[in-house]
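Run log // design_07
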């Protein structure tokens, strides 16, 4: 959840590769061997304290989060999830899975750390806690090596339990192309990023 007020919030910068290494270390630590869909609910229920000492989650009324699906406290290692997000997680909803992975990123990368406040936004996403949490979530749910084997959007969605938008974003980052039968998404060696029609 973004908490941007008048000033901009920044954290110690991390590169995409650094964040990916942390996500891979989490997978390793939790003994996740398969490159496929990872079960987020057991991580939430049983592994938070193992990853960050004393960490836990709580379910709160949707209204309490002001429309956000989740948030992680900066001062203590606590993830708050909206009741509706938690219900959807139980049904393995893709967006709820992504929300939990994103909050897990905040928990690991930002909880209890310094947050810097600037009057002007910095033009570098690597300082942005939201960018970092998004990168962590993508790397946790769609590990680079397994994801680079994907050929179609549908295959990636089914394999990793992610939304179409998340799969396409990951394809761009990893620089592979995914087809959905009509279009081809991701990275084009000649044209760079974007969408093209499949020949
Ligand atoms: Zn966030």
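design_07 sequence
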């Amino acid at each position: 959840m973004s908490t941007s007020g008048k000033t901009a919030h920044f954290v110690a910068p991390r590169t995409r590769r650094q964040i990916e290494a942390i996500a891979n270390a989490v997978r390793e630590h939790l003994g996740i061997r398969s490159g496929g869909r990872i079960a987020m609910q057991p991580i939430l229920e049983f592994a938070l304290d193992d990853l960050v000492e004393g960490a836990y989650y709580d379910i709160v009324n949707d209204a309490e989060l002001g429309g956000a699906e989740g948030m992680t406290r900066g001062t203590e290692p606590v993830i708050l999830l909206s009741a509706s997000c938690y219900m959807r997680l139980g049904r393995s909803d893709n967006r709820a899975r992504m929300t939990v992975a994103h909050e897990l990123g905040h928990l690991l990368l930002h909880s209890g750390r310094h947050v810097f406040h600037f009057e002007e936004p910095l033009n570098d996403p690597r300082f942005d806690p939201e960018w970092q949490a998004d990168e962590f979530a993508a790397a946790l749910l769609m590990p680079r090596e397994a994801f680079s084997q994907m050929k179609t959007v549908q295959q990636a969605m089914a394999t990793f339990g992610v939304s179409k938008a998340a799969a396409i974003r990951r394809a761009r980052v990893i620089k592979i192309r995914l087809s959905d039968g009509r279009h081809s998404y991701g990275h084009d060696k000649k044209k760079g990023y974007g969408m093209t029609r499949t020949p």
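The helical segments are 16-29, 40-51, 83-90, 94-109, 129-141, 144-147, 153-160, 164-174.
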